[in-house]
Amino acid sequence: MSAVFKAAPRLARMQDGDLAEVLAIENAVYSHPWTRGNFGDSLRAGYECRTWRLERELLGYFVLLVAAGEGHLLNLSVAAARQRAGHGSELLKEALRLARSRGAQHLFLEVRPSNLAGKALYNRFGFRQAAVRPGYYPAHGGREDALVLTLAL
Questions:
Q1: pTM of this prediction?
Q2: Which has the closest alpha carbon to 99: 125, 69, 76, 127?
Q3: Is it the case that residue 105 has pLDDT exceeding 90?
Q4: CB contact at 8 A, 77 and 29
Q5: pLDDT confidence of 6, banded at 50, 70, 90?
């Protein structure tokens, strides 16, 4: 009997050369996506920007800011065709691990009330609502609140 090794996704530092693929996912999964400038600024500022690839296929990514003992998950996205396969959970685990390793004691994030899948993911990990930011997100026909969630690390 021979073992068959299945390739596993790998986390890597996001590079400028990843941005075309990142933007393709971003534009496909959000009604109001981040721009190339948002991602470029995050890279230049030294934020923890990571990609999640299965061999050469980009499955998802995250952008994490860690400072003064706090982490702020700014973006976590999974390609539409790869959603509901556990990649969001794996990316979130990696972001939490990275935040802890950088000295964060709490992780914060914002999520739209209409993002049911995102809210369910964060609830499974134990995030709790800390606040509401009224009119935080652009939305079709106006603005949408942000739920501020936090998790003690």
A1: 0.94
A2: 69
A3: yes
A4: yes
A5: confident
